[in-house]
Amino acid sequence: MTSGAAVVIGASGGVGGAVRSRLEASGRFAVVHGVSRRGDGVDITDETSVAGLAARLGEGPPLELVFVATGVLHNGFEPERSFKAMQAAHLLRDFRVNALGPALLARHLIPLLTRDRRAVFAALSARVGSIGDNRLGGWHSYRASKAALNMILKTLAVELARTHPQAVVAGLHPGTVDTGLSKPFQRGVKPEKLFTPEQSAAHLLQVLDGLQPADSGGVFAWDGARVPE
Ligand SMILES: NC(=O)c1ccc[n+]([C@@H]2O[C@H](COP(=O)([O-])OP(=O)(O)OC[C@H]3O[C@@H](n4cnc5c(N)ncnc54)[C@H](OP(=O)(O)O)[C@@H]3O)[C@@H](O)[C@H]2O)c1
For the whole model, what pTM was predicted? Predict the structure, then answer.
């Protein structure tokens, strides 16, 4: 066991809840904080809320792992099939939750990351956020917000390499996971390609364990393969 802490933001979600349980069961960290909007009122799009979280976490041991498991895909908006369906409110909502929220978490939680040993800042992204891999089109708001997240992570990695040489910043693609977020889009997914949250959490934590500072800034899929930029 280390003397440091792990924090999972979005612990009320499918993947986030499974990651939190797995970290707790591993006994690797002195403390595992599970944080959510539903449970703790922490809204990642509200800077006062994020600053309050940081103040609370700052009273405990230094952070060795920040795992951002928040995100939104539908909830009130249908992912766009055409540019004709794009709406300002949808674009803004997805950017706020998927890109701005993780950026605020980085702004307030990176100062709590340990510097004298390995530390990881990871966020759940999605393969569809890859610009190079985009062959199908559609899902404009979600794709673009995840591409923005990937750039935020890359930029953090460049900066942290100077101040936290042992740190790793990573985006993660969890696979298609059976959660509320993917529920409306599971038709056509082969059963063996639809992971339980527990399977996905096991894969993702294994991938994180294998990452080196030289990998920092990349996005990695559940099987450890790098997702094209
Ligand atoms: N499931 C998949 O197949 C899949 C595939 C690729 C990528 N991903 C990515 O994986 C991540 C987790 O997805 P999931 O499948 O576990 O989804 P989920 O079960 O719907 O969980 C989403 C989580 O995000 C939280 N959240 C949303 N908006 C928030 C806000 N403003 N402030 C704080 N928390 C907020 C939710 O909190 P509340 O409970 O309070 O609403 C919930 O904890 C997402 O980033 C998603 O894009 C998932």
Answer: 0.99
